[in-house]
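Morning F.,

Quick status update on the modeling queue. The single chain you submitted on Monday has been processed. Sequence for confirmation:
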Amino acid sequence: IPAMLTALSVVREKELGSIINLYVTPVSRAEFLLGKQLPYVVLSMLNFLLLSALAVTVFGVPIKGSFATLALGALLFSLCTTGLGLVASTVTRSQVAAIFFTLIATLLPAIQFGGLLNPVSSLEGLGRFIGETYPVSHFLVISRGVFSKALDLPRLAGSFWPIVIAVPVILGMAIALLKKQER
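Structure tokens below.
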């Protein structure tokens, strides 16, 4: 959901014509995109806190590991997902196309290759490569480790590094793909 909301942020301005403000101001592309991303990261973290509270109180799922580790993983993951929304928003010209692009780029790989239904270790070829590089598979390992295996940051470091690396790569793609001026 945060990726889809973020995908609408820049493309909405393209459709309304207010993207011209970016073209005439001294704001850099990075500052513009980070300003668009920040509210959705905050919204994503509020959603994470509410869902965690719901899991513990209503469903009775105890958090056996470090909640700070889980929160850090959620923050990094939300930076990745909102970054993917920014990438979709910068390469498309309509809101419908941005939503469709985001759906294909986030939901399908998460379900098919992220380890949600089948373990990544059981995949082969391109599917395995996508599963090992996609941030959602690493966040699933983090959340499962914290909730059910009582793991903390040092034990989950192997799952954090791919997400930490993905954040600047995804944001760099969004910055590189946003044109400072229409042609």
